[in-house]
């Protein structure tokens, strides 16, 4: 406890960095995953997925979903090290973590978004079309709201995974709560290591709960 209180400003700085490196990739990755999921499914004028009707649609869906899943198999540390070669940044640049974790979020959320859109009944989409909804209005006012429960579940997994993987960046010198692990090991300070572990767990639990509450607020139409 004495080490924690003596280093509170430093811990607060690392927590803020960890929070930013966890949340921003989720927001950006989610925004990129949505159009990829739409591309995977395709939509006819009546709102039905073209994947259900054509071999080309099934191939397209498989290519997008499996391609995204393949990205997730790349080890996080390897991707962090690869990013400087691709982006032209220094090895310790936080941008490496932001881009790498955005890729991971896209990889996770494409599958979740496809499942979410497929969870919406085609009959509901046809009914929306029949009463005069344009494809754009149908998406924003019918399809997206009804798919939110599945999407929120996927986002919760992506967010908690990111909070965990951000710590890996500390191995190559990118500051986050993971820095408490590496510094604590190097200086043989168990209090520093335990602080890093506990704060990472607390951050994951708090953000997961907040996202669950946001999801509940956006889907009040669901039965309890």
Report on this structure.
With 224 residues, the protein is an all-alpha fold. It has one domain: MetI-like (MetI-like fold). The longest helix is centred in the first third of the chain and has 34 residues. The radius of gyration is 21 Å and the shape is elongated. The model has no long low-confidence stretch (mean pLDDT 87). One of its GO terms (biological process) is transmembrane transport. This is ABC transporter permease subunit. It is found in: Cell membrane; Membrane. One of its GO terms (cellular component) is plasma membrane.
Notable characteristics:
single chain, mainly alpha, MetI-like fold, 78% helix, 0% strand, transmembrane, MetI-like_sf
**How many extended strands?**
0
Helix content: over 70%
Architecture per CATH nomenclature, i.e. the level-2 architecture = Orthogonal Bundle
Structural class call reads mainly alpha
In CATH terms, the superfamily is MetI-like
Q: Within the CATH hierarchy, at the fold level, what is the topology?
A: MetI-like fold
Which spans of ≥5 residues are poorly predicted at pLDDT below 50? Answer: none
The whole-angstrom Rg is: 21 Å
Order of helices and strands: HHHHHHHHH
Overall average residue pLDDT: 87
Number of helices: 9
């Amino acid at each position: 406890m004495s080490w924690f209180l003596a280093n509170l400003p430093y811990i607060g700085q690392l927590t803020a960095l960890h929070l930013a490196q966890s949340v921003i990739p989720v927001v950006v990755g989610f925004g990129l995953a949505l159009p990829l999921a739409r591309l995977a499914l395709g939509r006819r004028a009546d709102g039905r997925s073209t994947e259900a009707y054509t071999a080309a649609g099934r191939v397209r869906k498989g290519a997008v979903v499996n391609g995204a899943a393949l990205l997730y198999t790349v080890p996080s540390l390897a991707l962090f090290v690869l990013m400087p070669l691709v982006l032209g940044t220094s090895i310790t640049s936080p941008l490496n973590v932001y881009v790498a974790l955005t890729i991971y979020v896209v990889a996770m959320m494409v599958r979740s978004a496809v499942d979410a859109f497929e969870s919406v009944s085609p009959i509901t989409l046809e009914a929306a079309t029949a009463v005069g909804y344009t494809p754009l209005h149908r998406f924003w006012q019918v399809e997206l709201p009804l798919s939110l429960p599945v999407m929120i579940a996927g986002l919760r997994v992506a967010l908690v995974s990111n909070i965990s993987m951000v710590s890996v960046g500390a191995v190559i010198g990118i500051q986050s709560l993971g820095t408490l692990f590496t510094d604590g090991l190097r200086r043989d300070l168990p209090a520093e290591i335990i602080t890093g572990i506990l704060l990472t767990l607390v951050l994951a639990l708090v953000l997961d709960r907040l996202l669950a509450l946001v999801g509940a607020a956006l889907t009040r139409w669901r039965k309890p």
